Structure formats: C-alpha cells, structure tokens
Amino acid sequence: MAEENQAILKACREIAMGLHGGTPLHVLEIGTGPGRVIALLLNSDLRYTIKKIVGIEQNKDIHNEVQKRFEDERVRVFIRNAFVGIDESGHLHSIRHALKKSLDFHIVLAVSNLVGWQCSLSGSNWKCKEREFLIDILKHAVLPGGGLFFTVYKKDELIDLERARMYRAAGDIIEFVDIGGQRHIAICTDAFSGEKHVSKAYTISELEKILNDVRSNLQRENIDIEYTIDSSSMFYMYGVIIRRLS
Ligand SMILES: C[S@@+](CC[C@H](N)C(=O)[O-])C[C@H]1O[C@@H](n2cnc3c(N)ncnc32)[C@H](O)[C@@H]1O
User: Fold this and answer.
1) Phi–psi pair at 112, nearest 5 degrees
2) Distance, CA 57 to ligand 1 centroid (Å)?
3) Confidence of residue 79 (pLDDT cuts 50, 70, 90)
4) 48 in a domain, yes or no?
5) Whose CA is nearest to atom 23 of ligand 1?
6) How many CA atoms within 13 Å lie on the side-chain side of 39?
7) Most ligand 1 atoms within 8 A of CB, residue of 30, 137, 148 to mutate
C-alpha cells in the first residue's frame, strides 16, 4: 500500500510536469473505494494544483460514504455512482456515460489492479478485455498532453500465493482459474450464487503486448500515445503511465 501510494504520487507529478507549467489539474479516479487515493492527493504537495477530482464508484453504499468523507472539499471533489468497464457479460460500459464532459482530465487513475478486473466468463472460458477498457479511457477521458496511470499485479507464483493469503485473511473465498494456460486468482464475491471475479496478474511481456495493441488501435484513429512501465518501485505491482500525445 505504502509502495503503491508513492508510485501514484510519483506518476501524478510526472504527468503534471509534462503539462504546461501551473496548469490547474483535473484528476479522475475510476474505482474510488473508500477514498484512499483522493485523500492521498489532497494531503500531498499536489493539492495546490488540483482544481477538480472526480471519483467513480460503482457501489452505492461506498459511494455515499466516500461522498460524506470529502464533504468539506465539495467545491472540487465530486463522487459519481457509476460502473465503468467490462461487466459480467463482457459488455463495455464506456467512461463517456459516467462523465459530464469528454476529454476533461489531465490525470486519470485506475489503480489497485482495476485493469486486471476487466474479465468475464464466456461459456467456460475467461475473456479479459483490458484493451477495450484502456482504449475507452484514453479516447474519452484523457486530455491530449495528459496521462493515465494504472497499477496491475505482477504474475509470479509467490506473489499469487501471498495475494491468496491476503484475500483469505480478509474473509474472501478464492479459487484459481485457468486463463490462457496460466493460473489466475478468482474471488468469489457471493459464496451462495458462486459468482466469481477474476483479478488477473500480468507478465511483463503480456503487459507490453496489451500496451502495443492499444497504441496501434489508437493510431488508427490518429491518437498517439507513449507508455512507460515501472517494474522496480513496487514489489507486487507494475506501474504504467500512458501519456496521450495527441
Ligand atoms: C479495491 S477497491 C480500490 C479503491 C481505491 N482505488 C484504492 O486503491 O484504494 C476497488 C473499488 O472500485 C470499485 N469498482 C470496481 N470495479 C469498478 C468499476 N468497473 N466501475 C466503478 N467502480 C468499480 C469497487 O466497488 C471498489 O470500491
């Protein structure tokens, strides 16, 4: 957590530095949860340059709680109750529908492995649509000149075991499922119905393949991006900055 916090702040500073000096920042966080990242930003040196933070949270109760948490900051912190990304049937819920205005954000954050949650069961196979998720955000939310920062878990047997231990300790029921010949963690959110969500982890080459595909796809629409993968700041995770150049 502490490592990821540092990586988030470092990435935000890096993206901000690439903008014209002193630009008042608009930040979007997808999957806000209890507001850890928003609080982190508001307690950092970045608070002076942040003009607006929009948080998107799919769970109504969590949404209400986090809205209350940032009541004092209501002139610049806005929490929306919406689901963004790939749902259980594999359908993409575009970020467009959750925003009042397109292309309004200098910094977009999708941390805590949100990109690794973009999977759904198709028959008996898991299909993961990270590409669609990333393309949608880069096309509709990130301002040219701005950037998206996301963190995903590294694919490693020991990290998988440690994550499994962590989830179990938190009371989750987990199992391992096969995706493309690799073992991935599925979390059973509802033990009664057996409803499962995969929290996928990535090898560096898989991550590069996804990012190169995203870049080629966006190039066809005259959107240029460049990406950097940070594999050393965090033990469990990769940190990825995708900068939208045009
Ligand atoms: C693991 S928490 C992480 C919260 C926060 N980003 C952090 O890192 O501390 C994930 C949160 O994202 C929300 N969430 C997950 N998938 C989402 C989606 N597709 N759209 C909107 N919210 C989502 C969940 O309800 C949960 O509150």
Assistant:
1) 55, 40
2) 6
3) very high
4) yes
5) 31
6) 10
7) 30
User: What interhelical angle do 204-219 and 130-140 show, nearest 10?
Assistant: 50
The dihedrals phi and psi of 123, each to the nearest 5 degrees, come to 65, -120
Give yes or no for a contact between 23 and 51, defined as CB atoms under 8 angstroms apart: no
CA distance 22 to 108: 18
CA 85 to chain centre: 10
Q: How many domains does the chain have?
A: 1
Give domain status of residue 142, yes or no: yes
E strands along the chain, which residues?
25-30, 50-57, 77-81, 85-86, 92-93, 105-110, 119-122, 125-128, 142-154, 173-179, 182-190, 195-199, 201-202, 225-230, 237-244
Residue-wise burial string across 154-191, b where 16 or more C-beta atoms lie within 10 A, e elsewhere: bbeeeebeebbeebeeeeeebeebebeeeebbbbbeee
What is the pLDDT, as a whole number, of residue 191? Answer: 64
Question: Does 10 map to a domain?
Answer: yes
* 87-145 residue pLDDT tens: 999 999 999 999 999 999 999 999 999 999 999 999 889 999 999 999 999 999 999 99
Please tell me if the CB atom of residue 84 comes closer than 6 angstroms to any atom of ligand 1. Answer: yes
What domain range is 39 assigned to? 2-154+201-244
79 forms bridges with which residues in the sheet?
55
Which residue puts its alpha carbon closest to atom 16 of ligand 1?
A: 31
Which residue owns the Cα nearest ligand 1 atom 26? 33
User: Which CATH number covers residue 116?
Assistant: 3.40.50.150
Decide whether any atom of ligand 1 lies within 6 Å of the 55 Cβ: no
In a domain, 177, yes or no: no
